[in-house]
Amino acid sequence: MSYLPKPSVRHPKLKRNALGLTHRDYEGNLSTLCAGCGHDSISAAIIQSCFEMDLPAHRIAKLSGIGCSSKTPTYFLGQSHGFNTVHGRMPSVATGASLANRDLIYIGVSGDGDTASIGLGQFSHAVRRQTNMLYIVENNGTYGLTKGQFSATNDYGSKAKKGAINPYQAIDLVSLALQLGAGFVARSFSGDKTQLIPLIKAGISYRGFALIDCISPCVTFNNHDGSKKSFDYVREHNHAMLKTDVIPEKEQITAEYDEGTSVSVTLHDGANIHLRKLDADYDPHDRVAALAHVQKVQAEGEIPTGLIYLDREESDLHEILNTAAVPLNALDSDRLCPGEAQLAEINQALR
Amino acid sequence: MTGSTPQISSVNEFVIKFANVNGSGSASANQLFAKAVFRMGVPVAPRNIFPSNIQGLPTWFEVRVSEAGYLGRRGGVDIMVSVNPHTFEDDVKELGAGGYLVYDSTARRTIERKDITVIPIPMTRLCLEEFGDMPNRHLFKNMLYVGALAALLDIDVEVIRQLITEQFGGKTRLIEPNTKAVQVGLAYAQQNFDCPLNIKIAKSDSVGDRIMMEGNAAAALGCVYGGATVAAWYPITPSTSVAEAFERYCKTLRVDPETKENRFAIVQAEDELAAAGIAIGASWNGARAFTATSGPGISLMSEFIGLAYFSEVPFVLFDVERGGPSTGMPTRTQQSDLLAAAYASHGDTKHVLLLPANPHECFDFAAQAFDLADRLQTPILVMSDLDIGMNNWVTEPLEWNDNRAYDRGKVLDYEDLEQAKEFGRYLDVDGDDITYRTYPGTHPSKGAYFNRGTSHDPYARYTEAGDAYIENMERLRRKVDSAAQFLPEPEIYFCEKKSRFGIIYFGSTAPALSEAVEHLYAADIDVDTLRVRGFPFHDSVAKFVEDHEKVFVVEQNRDGQLRTLLANELSADPEKLISIVHYDGTPITAEFIASELTKRTGPRSVVPLPGPGTRKVS
Questions:
Q1: Residue-range definition of the domain harbouring residue B426
Q2: What is the structure's pLDDT at A253?
Q3: Mean pLDDT over residues B551-566, rounded?
Q4: Closest residue of B to A329, CA-based?
Q5: pLDDT in the model for residue A250
Q6: CB spacing of B225 vs A100 below 8 angstroms
Q7: In this structure, are B455 and B504 located in the same domain?
Q8: Does the distance separating the beta carbons of B212 and A95 come in below 8 Å?
Q9: Do B337 and B299 touch, CB atoms closer than 8 A?
């Protein structure tokens, strides 16, 4: 039951981060998802990432839509404000929230039904607008809370638990985001923490729209033979294109990177991202090539994962709209209200 | 003009209607005509009656000129300016006996009617002769008839020249040909007719310090003054100009003078759902935010309105109503979203409505809406309509007091949280049904909560426990009902004698209704009136209904939606609430109201309009 608090006993020797906080300080309530659900691994990865990045949790806002995935913000970052919106509409609420206070970090958690079906329009437009947020799709190809219907990301020819074969083409959120101009596009797998955590860190650091399409098998309704989003299937077909390391600004770069096979990017907040190429001749800064490569790998029946595209020119909606450096929600009436004398002038001009 | 033709003679008291083809630039010329009358100190009410189309369909523009200050639609037409050959015959029919027909006589017409004065002006031919070498010469036809009217109605042509200069401010090359078109029309009228006519304008000081403004622009300016920083919208007639005016005002009033950065953010969203979502997201995060829409948008936003109601996120919504249902009559006016707005969304909900009747109130109520939203932590819907929103009204000057502070409601900051023993987002600490909220990012370890549309306990934790759900729902009901005390009070007028009859109305019905009531008084029919300005209803509304034998509810929709609200919300006998509705898409007229009320208040003669001494047919 999610409203039962977790036991507050903490081991005195728990590792502390630069803020003096332990991993436990980033946790939320107990999960009510099914045992073994991929979504819980993603929540754990978010907790780990924020702990390791020394982020004050209250400076993060977490938003979600409706569905199993969208319940998860209750299970991480208990000191963060959260907003569980309506089905498929998290992107617009996140856009508004981000406009009101540009100084917070926005993490949106959504599912494949929430993003690719009912929310496809809102998702697309949040990408177009470069809403500054990390958008994680916990993608299991199925409607879990309503017990196992196909979703729009369910792969063509995939088998449902009760035996039906999906006759429709899947919506590929990675390709869509690339086409719509997302600055940061990644795909990962809830079962691959070593890949997912650096991606979450990089996505949080990135200024602009960052997508992680995270395949997260549904253990109850979509983890059987014949399903193309089962743990076994994804493990067998996982095609990592890049390996991502994120090094915070304050840390020394110790690993050695071969310039021929790695790319280094410094983000606006000073974090360094190192991308080690696993596919030769793949340039993660070329949008057109990235799109083509993803299509090619997918056509071969593989699932491309890793940081697929990174636009080094970080840009967001605030830049487009030229909004004030002071968050809009912090402006007082002196800076908002033009006042009596100004109104007298306006009246005069209307005579 | 023969001596035997009856002619209306009137100074500063008449209705002139322009019949044009849309997309021909006529609206701005007609607007300029109205502004000229206004500048001469005579109250005027222009109304654009236009099609849902960009070019080529019939469009009308009606201007009520009224020294007495009647700014509603009167009904009937005294001068018809007919520039659209396709509607010519109907337009001639509509003109009242003794009226004047000004028409484009480039193609001569046979006019059967003998009871009107015909003033043929070959507008197209004159334009061809004078502007033959200009690509858009037909556009000058409009300014040409404005010039002719200046002569015919004795309008100071200098006022018109001044307005042209103001209108084309930066585009000096347009000033000269437009001024010339006015001169051509003026000269033609002077040479061919006895100017001025018996119907005319005379300089006056009846306007006082009033201004001329559209309701949508006033609402937008109210948002600027009310401290709104985030606006999200989706284009829809007739609300589009709220967002556009907000942007225009922000660009002059809200840009940081040093950094040139914007102290506002405006997003044209992908649809109305997203527009509502953006406004709600921004409000949850502590900015003042709004969206503007019309009927179809209310349908689309309803789920979000329910979320904001249930999770208690303030936000402001402008509904500039138009003819429904479905796509309905998108460019015609109605007051038909009242019920949809009052109870928007599934489940048990009720929302606070503000009902402005003119641009002055659009400004006031817009600014006030943000205080109310923050105070009550619930959506506030400002219900305007096309008539108020898109027409230029002569209205009282806008007012602001620099001592006025924004009421941000119950928000705990860092210090408050430091002091607080416990925080429950939905914990009714003060016993007034309004709870404390926090903005994200306030405190490292206190005040965070999960805002949700699922049922929750006082600590914002998910619960399906029936008693917690009921407790919360009852508190929400009490909270919204308590709003009545904060809302603008109804405007009530009692006639001198005690009357059995009451009239309840709201919004754009106001000016036509006031005029109709004056004429009822003149015919010794006593009625009391009450204009509703907010919902939930103030106690005085129930008392007003109680105190009258019959209450006429006058409104602009088919089903008597205000009547339904009154019957539903007050413990009043529905039998005594009598609906009088006007919903053909045009603004309600004083003639219509007077005639309906006369029929229903007793066996009396129909009251003639308008009142004594202002206008006569001889």
A1: 414-485
A2: 60
A3: 98
A4: B287
A5: 65
A6: no
A7: no
A8: no
A9: no
Nearest by Cα to A75 from A138, A122, A14: A138
The residue assigned the tokens 């390709």 is: A175
Chain A neighbours among B 268-327 (CB < 8 Å)? Answer: 269-271, 273-287, 289, 303-304, 307
Question: What are the residue ranges in chain A where pLDDT is below 70?
Answer: 1-8, 250-260
H or E element, residue B64: strand B58-66
* A116: closest CA of chain B, how far (Å): 16
pLDDT tens, residue by residue, A11-62: 778 999 999 999 999 999 999 999 999 999 999 999 999 999 999 999 999 9
Cα torsion angle, A337, A342, A343, A346, sign: negative
With 0-12 / 13-18 / 19 or more C-beta atoms within 10 angstroms meaning exposed / middle / buried, residue A256 is exposed
Share of chain A above pLDDT 90, in %: 82
Residue B196 backbone phi and psi in degrees, to 5: -80, 170
Tell how far CA A334 is from the center of its chain: 37
Has residue B612 got a pLDDT over 90?
Answer: no
**Residues contacting A52, CB < 8 A, separation 6+:** A17, A197, A201
Q: Is the pTM of this model over 0.90?
A: yes
Give the H/E segment covering residue B371: helix B359-376
Q: What is the pLDDT of residues B231-262, one digit of tens each?
A: 999 999 999 999 999 999 999 999 999 999 99
Q: Give the separation between CA B378 and CA B308, rounded to whole angstroms.
A: 6
Query: In this structure, what CATH number is given to the domain that contains residue B311?
Result: 3.40.50.970
User: How far apart (Å, rounded) are the C-alpha atoms in residues A206 and A267?
Assistant: 6
pLDDT at B1: 47
DSSP B462: B
The average confidence (pLDDT) of chain B is 95
**Nearest CA-CA distance, residue A331 and chain B, Å:** 8
Q: Are residues B594 and B509 in the same domain?
A: yes
| B 210-229 near A (Cβ less than 8 A) | 210-213, 221, 224-225, 227, 229
Among the three residues B435, B464, B485, which one is the final residue of a domain in this structure? B485
Interchain CB distance below 8 Å, A100 and B286: yes
Helix (H) or strand (E) holding A325: none
Instruction: Map out the domains of chain A with their CATH numbers.
Output: 23-330 (3.40.50.970)
Same domain, B303 and B450: no
Q: Which two tokens stand for residue A349?
A: 């001009």
Q: In a 10 Å sphere around its CB, with 0-12 CB exposed, 13-18 middle and 19+ buried, how is residue B275 labelled?
A: buried
Number of structural domains (chain B) is 4
Distance from C-alpha of B452 to C-alpha of A163, rounded to nearest angstrom = 36
pLDDT band at B614 (very low <50, low <70, confident <90, very high): very low
As a whole number, mean pLDDT of residues B105-134 equals 94
Beta-carbon contacts of B235 under 8 Å, excluding residues fewer than 6 positions away, are B268
B470 and B497 fall within a common domain: no
Q: What is the ipTM of this complex?
A: 0.95
Helix/strand/coil for B37? helix
CA A144 – CA B216 distance, rounded (Å): 46
Taking only residues 253 to 292 of chain A, the set having a beta carbon closer than 8 angstroms to any beta carbon of chain B reads none
Cα–Cα nearest to B533, from B503, B507, B510, B515: B507
B230 and B106, same structural domain? no
Question: E-assigned strands of A206-261?
Answer: 209-215, 238-240, 242-247
Q: How many helices (H) and strands (E) does chain A have?
A: 12, 13
CB contact under 8 A, A337 and B212: no
Cβ count within 10 A of residue B573:
11
Instruction: Let me know: does B359 contact B388? Beta carbons within 8 Å.
Output: yes
CA atoms within 13 A on the CB side of A58: 15
pLDDT in tens, B508-541: 999 999 999 998 999 889 999 999 999 999 999 9
